[in-house]
Design brief:
The chain is an alpha+beta fold. About 40% of the residues lie in helices and about 20% in strands.
């Protein structure tokens, strides 16, 4: 017993020594801590009741800090966005004037039909082939991607297989109405200065067919204009606002360009879009009117700090986040910014390729991956017209009892977007401009204001805001700072280790561990020896037992 008590004595001394060291070190920290209330926990000049009050105050402060931290962390994890005014007086001349497209409802110059027959049909073609070609041209006069007016049953009756050799896109380009056909030559004005209409109105593809577009940078003609004027001066800019301060032109639609029994109307569509954008929504203009197209530009910039937020949550894409639908070779030929601006156009083409296995260059970019649609493909376009005519949102079906077929495109706007909000005012023209042989349109496109509002979208509560708010809360409740936190970590780690070293605790701890290890080995040896002795005793007893003479007999009876 005496030996066992002497063996346990070092453990008790070690435990006592460790407790005393911790107590002394805690007193040492309390005397030097920069956190409020801590120095009063071990102040020998205070009564125990006073220490208890300070201790309760410290616990309440720490609890408040923890509660505020949870609230701030929830707010930070919510990742909410805020859009604020960045500049309320941003001059409009800093941004490009929009591209202005002119699209007629009738896309075909019917007076060139005989020329088209001579160019696209073989010599000595049969009467049936010529009639089929004329019918094909009839279907092209109102062809647009989102609204094909002819039914599939009507197209089934046509022998389009005989016209598979005709390239529809080339035919549409050949018969398209040119600038000299519909724009009055001496009517074009830019910033109250006249210019050559057909030099700046270029024939370009849109989803509404081939249109004449001003201030665009997509066609070859526009590329040449940009090289000649310089990239800083084309696309053009405008600093003034109000009527007759931007683009003015007159349109004349002659009756001879239209088929006598045509389903096309005499309306003209005006398209306002970005200079690098293929297509956009259109505004209808009725004949013999004067239309004022008022444009209010608006720019929104999004901070790079929002990149960690999913694009679906911030409702925009950065330039390097564009969608690749895998059906076109455009990503290899165009910039990421251009692809993002025309994401919807690429998505629409992907639906046409998936459903009809072809593409139409009069609506989309030239695609080397798939073949162009031919006359037979018009049946497929008509068959799926209900899909091509409707852009469907991702979660739209959750709010409608009847699901409508359409194209679901994961396209979002550019996070740094320039938008042109457009409104139109139409007035009737006087009798002097009216004629039975043509329809007259007068168009004035201008800015609404000379200064626009720019917006900036950012995180409502960023990581910097979280750190600043936490610092303020800890300073308010505990009077602590970041240095106080580093100090606490130091005292709990390096400082405490050095304190034990200075008081020679590690040598005592080493001796204690050696004694415990020796006890463990002794216990293991005794246990193995005792188990071996039990095994030998069992085997000896088994050998000493006498065998009964009848143990091996099965029938002892």
């Amino acid at each position: 017993m005496a030996k066992e008590e002497n063996a346990n004595k070092p453990d008790k001394d070690a435990q006592k020594s460790f407790k005393e060291l911790v107590r002394n070190y805690f007193r040492y920290y309390c005397e030097r801590s920069t956190i409020h209330c801590v120095r009063y926990l071990y102040d020998p000049r205070l009564h125990n009741v006073e220490r208890l009050i300070w201790c309760a105050l410290l616990v309440i402060s720490v609890t408040l800090c923890g509660s505020f931290y949870l609230l701030l962390s929830d707010r930070f994890r919510a990742q909410k966005l805020q859009t604020v005014i960045d500049d309320p007086q941003y001059p409009v001349f800093f941004v490009q004037f929009p591209a202005v497209g002119v699209c007629t409802d009738n896309r075909i110059n019917w007076s060139k039909l005989d020329e088209a027959k001579a160019q696209f049909l073989p010599a000595n073609s049969s009467q049936e082939l010529v009639e089929g070609f004329t019918t094909l041209v009839t279907y092209l006069e109102t062809l647009r991607f989102d609204n094909f007016k002819y039914s599939n049953s009507e197209l089934e009756d046509q022998n389009f297989e005989a016209l598979e050799f005709v390239n529809i896109s080339s035919l549409a380009f050949f018969l398209a109405l040119r600038c000299e056909d519909i724009i009055e030559p001496s009517s074009c004005m830019w910033r109250q200065s006249s210019f050559d209409c057909c030099e700046y109105f270029a024939l370009e593809k849109t989803e509404y067919g081939l249109c004449l577009v001003f201030n665009s940078e997509l066609s070859e003609q526009s590329v040449q204009l940009k090289k000649r004027a310089g990239k800083d001066f084309y696309p053009r800019h405008n600093a003034k606002a109000g009527q007759s301060s931007g683009l003015n032109f007159n349109l004349i639609l002659h009756k001879r360009f239209k088929r006598p029994a045509s389903q096309a109307t005499d309306n003209v569509y005006i398209m306002i879009k970005k200079p690098d954008q293929l297509t956009n929504a259109v505004f209808s203009l009725t004949p013999n009117t004067e239309t004022y197209v008022t444009i209010r530009p608006q720019m929104t910039r999004t901070d790079e700090s929002t990149r960690n937020i999913p694009a679906e949550h911030r409702n925009c894409h950065f330039t390097d986040e564009h969608e690749d639908f895998g059906t076109s070779d455009a990503p290899r030929r165009f910039s990421k910014s251009f692809l993002l601006s025309n994401c919807l156009n690429n998505c629409h083409e992907s639906y046409l390729i998936k459903l009809c296995n072809c593409t139409l260059p009069i609506f989309f970019l030239i695609n080397g991956k798939v073949e162009d649609c031919n006359a037979v493909s018009l049946r497929c376009i008509s068959r799926h017209n209900d899909i091509f005519s409707y852009d469907k949102h991702l979660k739209e079906d959750d709010f409608f009892s009847a699901s409508k077929p359409g194209m679901t495109c994961p396209c979002l706007v550019n996070c740094n977007v320039l938008e042109y909000y457009t409104s139109t005012t139409t007035l009737p023209l006087t009798g002097q401009n009216m004629s039975a042989s043509h329809q007259f349109f007068k168009v004035d496109v201008h800015y609404q204001v000379e200064n626009m509002i720019t917006y900036r979208t950012s995180l409502e509560f960023s990581s910097i805001d979280l750190i600043a708010n936490l610092g303020g809360i800890f300073g308010l409740c505990l009077g602590a700072s970041m240095v106080s936190g580093v100090e606490l970590i130091y005292y709990l780690t390096v400082g405490f280790a050095m304190h034990l070293y200075d008081n020679s605790y590690y040598g005592l701890l080493r001796e204690n561990l050696k004694q415990k290890w020796a006890k463990c080995l002794l216990y293991l040896r005794n246990g193995i020896s005792h188990a071996h002795q039990q095994t030998e005793a069992t085997e000896a007893m088994a050998k000493s037992q006498l065998r009964h003479p009848f143990n091996k007999r099965t029938n002892a009876w």
